[in-house]
Prior knowledge:
Blueprint: H1 2-26, H2 32-64, E1 66-81, E2 96-111, E3 114-122, E4 133-134, E5 144-153, E6 162-168, E7 187-195, E8 198-208, E9 221-235, E10 238-249, H3 259-262, E11 296-309, E12 312-323, E13 338-347, E14 355-364, E15 383-395, E16 398-409, E17 433-443
Antiparallel strand pairs: 1-2, 1-17, 2-3, 2-4, 3-5, 5-6, 6-7, 7-8, 8-9, 9-10, 10-11, 11-12, 12-13, 13-14, 14-15, 15-16, 16-17
Amino acid sequence: MKRFWLLALLAGSLAVITAPVSAKMTEGDNTGSSQSDDLAQFQDDVNSGLGSLASRMSAAEDQLKLKLFGDVRLRFAFVGQSQSAKLTSATNIQATERARFRLRFGAMKQFGDFTAAFRLATGTDNNPLSENQSFTNEFSNDWIGVDQAYITYVPTFLNGHLKATAGKMPNPLTTTPISWDPDPQPEGALLEGSLDDAKLRATYFILSDSSGVVTANNQDLYMAWFQAEQNFKFDPDTSALFTVGYEYVPDVTAYQGTGSLAALAPAAPTNPTGGAYKTPTALGMVANAHGIIPDVETLEFLLNIKNKIGAVPFKWTLHFMDNLDSFTLTSKNWSNQYGGWASVTAGDASDKGAWSGMFAVGYIEPDATFSLITDDDDGDNNTEFLRGNITYGIEKGLQLSWTNWAISHVYYSLSTGAGTASNGLGKTSQDPEIESYLDLLATF
């Protein structure tokens, strides 16, 4: 396509240049024959040159092997919640409505066994949990930052059975919204081995680097995650992917008040029965009576089944998480370690005129996983929710979708401002929050 427009531009320029000469010849100039021969030779030379240029441009594109990718999303978001009269005053909780957008653009190039890529994205400085920008800045230029920057190595001599990635990378783990928000791009290293339909991956993600910084124990905060999975293929339309994972984050208490995630942590909740027996750290976890937050050691089990009913593709997902180092919250005797997700998706909206729909139920207790990497839009930590989505393919690569959440707190008193009147979303009311998103997504 680029070559076509370049050739058209050059041809148009030549037409403008040669038009006066041609017009003069048609008016009976005595030197027309000589000029005609010269012009014909000139045009032959130009055509030859253009053909050579197009050939060279084609060769350059083939040699460059640069792949561009990205997407643009426009969103209208509504969040509302009623207020429980038995616990609060007559103060009304104010609903929010806002228009937002997201832009992501990247490039990728292969160098033998190595692939290097980067991606830029909108969002907010020092907020890894959202790539959205709201239309509220009075036409000012919006923030954009480095979303991905990584290099992947797949050695040819191992026939693609080993992959190593380092940098700020797309999330290589198999996830659902109770374990990871889709926006954070983890930083660190990945090592993945595969054989037939089996994979084994290990990741080391850096959360906070204490180099040159004095902390309680002068250690780096990191997240290690291991997953083993096997894909069972029963026929061309039916398969089952079974994944077992282990997440480990060391003692996070020492890292309170540091890093980008600290700024996003919720305020310390109150204990309506008296006493401050639970306090979140800067990373959103919940402490026990002694103020000690255990290591996160979470086991997870995922099952993804794909099949067809008639001509309609279906995907069924089950996900269970259990933090082995969690504890029972004092006073209320609440469990504080489990998370679960179940969803079904029908259809495929990738083509023009096609539809898809999804329905999901989720449940996640405060310490089931490293809390602030879960979904920021609905705040999956300490919530139980229903989620529905319907998507229509306007054109190939252009989709219109509507998503709706109904969200309730698992443990109400872990909400800020418990027991007192508040007009803030997600605080005093025990009634579900209702969140709706209308999205127009273009992918290229």
